[in-house]
Amino acid sequence: MGALASGQWFFKEALVASTVASAMLPPVRLTAVVALETQCSPGAIEDGANQWMETAKKFNEAADGIQDRVKAADKSTWSSDDREAFEGKISEFVRHLRSAALAATFIAVTLLLYAFILFVFGIFLAVMASVLLAIAIAYLVQSWIPGYGQAFMTWANTFATTVGMQLRATAAQLRTVAQTAATMIGALAGGNVAFQIATGSDTAAGDLVQSTLYSIDEIAISYLENKIAGGPGSKGFTGTTKGLLGKSFWGGFGYQGADTFGLSPSSNFRQQGPDTWGVPSGGTYGNPIDPEPGISAF
Description:
The two termini are about 50 Å apart. The protein folds into two domains: about 5-200; about 210-280, no CATH class. It has helices spanning about 5-25, 30-35, 40-70, 80-145, 150-200, 210-230, 245-260. It is rod-shaped, with a radius of gyration of 30 Å. By secondary structure, it is mainly alpha-helical.
């Protein structure tokens, strides 16, 4: 939980105080209903925003890593029309990663702003519920004294009703803000998937993070490694040819070492054990470190 983690406590305190107060001063029930309907955890929303920021960071790191790998390739080793075509395709992938990072950042900011609004509302709700509880206690005391306190009791009823109606109106506005935020998030996510489809991604319906960091990075960079090695690379973007990793050039130890030191942006996100790595046509690597099982690495 982050700085807004205590927000949930304010909503709970408001619910308890307003519920107790409503037993003594009936108009407080309006406030109690609002407190019940708006129970939430701003801290949890903040955590979600932080996760989106982390996702945006990973997208940018992946884009930077891909660009660095392409720039590091010696053009004297591989210089032809297919390299230009490959670099054009890589540019599309990088643009997709940047747009995904931008979308994730906007989603994070939207969630963070809404969490802060809820946090402030929770404090206000708790304060008003506490005030109403104090008034309700005074109201109860006044009701035990015949002939006294009639003016106060009338004022208390009016005040509690007014506060309840104002809080209910504010809660309605918060629901509108929430719907707007949800629409923005949905539009950003949908737009990102549409961008994947427009750029030829075959994993648009899958998980955004996995499809980008597993499929795009692995297929594209593996193709580049194979081209530098001079091995078979005509199937570069199919992702189904084991020779894409250019093992004749890297060697098992060399490739693993390069991967370990972060030359591939997806190296920090790989799963251990058998995995399809998101490659099309069902191409399966038996081991994420040794993509050609049964062949000696040295």
